[in-house]
Amino acid sequence: MTDADADSLLIERVKRGDTKAFEMLVLKYQRRVERLIARMVRDPDVVADIAQETFIRAYRALPQFRGESAFYTWLYRVAVNTAKKALVDMKRDPIVTEAARANGNEDDETSLLENVLSDDATPEALLASKQLAATVNAAVDALSEDLRQAITLREIDGLSYEEIADLMNTPIGTVRSRIFRAREAISQRLRPLLDAPKGKRW
Amino acid sequence: MMLNAPKPDEGLSESQAQALSALVDAECGAEEAEEILALWGQSDDVRQRWYEAHCIGDALRSPDLASNPAHDAQFLQAFRARLAQEPVLLAPQALPAVAARSRGRASRWWMAASIAAGVGTVALGLSQFALLAPGSNDWAPRGPAQGVLASSKSAGSPTPGSVAASQPFDGKQFPPLVSQASWVAASAPRASIWPPANVTSPVQTPDVQLIRDARLDRYLAAHQGFSAASPLGDPSAHLRNVTVEPRR
Q1: What is the pLDDT of residues A42-60, one digit of tens each?
Q2: What does residue B238 show for φ and ψ, rounded to 5 degrees?
Q3: How far is B4 from chain A, CA to nearest CA, in Å?
Q4: Which residues of A touch B17 (CB under 8 A)?
Q5: Which of A119, A155, B123, B206 lies at a C-alpha separation of 20 to 30 Å from B181?
Q6: What is the band of B31 on the pLDDT scale with cuts at 50, 70, 90?
Q7: Between helices A145-155 and A172-194, what is the axis angle to 10°?
Q8: Which of A118, A155, A157 to mutate to test the interface with B (most CBs of B within 10 A)?
Q9: Are B91 and B197 in contact (CB under 8 A)?
Q10: ipTM over cut 0.85
C-alpha cells in the first residue's frame, strides 16, 4: 500500500457517506494546506478561513477525484485556486481596502491583508507551536537509538518499512513495532501540550 | 486479523494502536486498514492517535508545520460545523437499472454529462428565485442541513417527495430536479448527479425512475407558476420547465 492508496481508502469511505473519514484527511493535511496558503496570504485568520473553504470545496468535489494524481496534489490545486479567489474577492471588498488605506498601506497589495492582529498571531500562539516543535525534537532525542533511528528514517527521510528494515537489518515487523513505540513515547510528552484531559477529546 | 471495537471511553488495544500507527505510514493491509477506519467514529482514541502521529511527523519535517494544538482543535471543530451543513456525499455509481441499460462507460459518461448540463441549467435559473440563503454568494453557498437524493426504500412503492431521475436525456425529456442541497454539490463544473449507492430496487416506470424528496414536492406545490410566465421572461435560454408526475 502506498500513501496514495491509504488516502484512497479514506476517500472511498467518504464517497460511501462516511464523513468522519474526511475528518481524518483534514487532520492529516490541515497544517500543510495552511502553510501553503500562508505563502499567499499573511493574515492567519484569513489563512484558516481559506483552509476551511479549501477542505469544503475538496469535499464537494470529491466525487470528481478519480485518483489519477495523488490526493495531496489535487488538494494543493484546490487550495491555490481557493486562495486566489479569496484574494480577488478581498481586493474588491471596499471594507478591506478602506481599512488597509486607513493604515497607510495603499501602495503595497499584499499588505492589504496583513494588518489585522488575530489570535493566531499572538506571542502565545507562536510560542505554542514553537513549544510543540521543541517538545517533539526533545522527545526524539530522548529515545533509544533503535526507536530514534526508526522514527526519523520514516518521518524525515520518508523511507518505507521495507527500506528501513533493510537499512537497520531487522524484520519489517520489528520496524513497525519500533515506529509505534517511538510514537507512543513522543505522544506521552506531547499530551500536556495538547490540553486533552483523559476521557475528553476533541 | 479481527479487531474488536473498543467502547467509546476505552482506548485501543496495543495491537489496534499498532495497526493504526502502520496505517499512518500506509504500511498496513487493506483489510486491517478498513477495520481501523471502521473504529474512527466509535473511538476518540483513534482520532487522537491519528492526530498526534501526524503532528509528530509534521513537526519533525519542518518547524513551519509544527502545530498550535489549540488552533488545530478549533479548526477541526469549525470544520465539523461546516461539514454538517453539506449534503452527505454518496458514491458516484449509476442506479442499477441505469447501469444495466447503459451500454458501457462511454454512454454512462454521456448520460451523466447531459444530466449534469441540465441540472446546471436548472440550478442557474432557479437560483434567481433566491433559493440560496440570503446573503450567500458563490463563495460560500449555504444549503439546508440535510438533503441528498432520497432513495426509494422498496421496489414498487414510491415514498412521498420524489425526484424524477429521467434518462437518457435526449433534449426532449426534462432533466431531473434535485433538492437544493444537491445543487450545491452539482454546481461544480462537470458535476454529475450522485444517485444513492445503496439503491437496490429503484422504482421504475418505462422512462422514469423516481427518487423522492419531501421538500421538493412542497416546493413544486408552492411554485405552480413555474412556467413561461416567470420574471425571467423567455426561460428557454437558461431555464427549463420540469414536470414531475408523482405516482398516486
Answers
A1: 888 899 999 999 999 999 9
A2: -145, 15
A3: 19
A4: 180, 184
A5: B206
A6: confident
A7: 90
A8: A155
A9: yes
A10: no
Q: At a CB cut-off of 8 Å and minimum separation 6, what does A37 contact?
A: A47, A50, A51, A54, A79, A82, A83
Q: What is the pLDDT of residues B81-103, one digit of tens each?
A: 999 998 887 765 433 443 344 44
Measured between alpha carbons, how far is A53 from A85 in angstroms, rounded to an integer?
11
Q: How confident is the model at residue A112 (pLDDT cuts 50, 70, 90)?
A: very low
Amino acid at A129: S
Q: B214: which residues sit within 8 A by CB, 6+ positions away?
A: B150, B160, B161
Which residues of chain B make contact with A72, given a CB cutoff of 8 A?
A: none
pTM of the model: 0.58
Pair A124, B32: CB distance under 8 Å: no
B43-55 pLDDT, tens digit each: 788 999 999 999 9
Q: Which of A30, A42, A65, A99 is nearest to B89 (CA)?
A: A65
Tell whether B139 is within 8 A of chain A (Cβ).
Answer: yes
B51 CB within 8 Å of a chain A CB: yes
A111: left (phi over 0), alpha (psi -120 to 50) or beta: alpha
Q: Contact, A158 vs B16, CB < 8 A?
A: no
**What is chain B's mean pLDDT, rounded?**
60
pLDDT at A156 over 60: yes
Q: What is the mean pLDDT of residues A78-98?
A: 83
State how far the Cα of B8 lies from the Cα of A68, in Å rounded to an integer: 37
Please answer yes or no on whether B61 and A179 come within 8 Å at the CB atom: no
Chain A touched by B83 (CB under 8 Å): yes
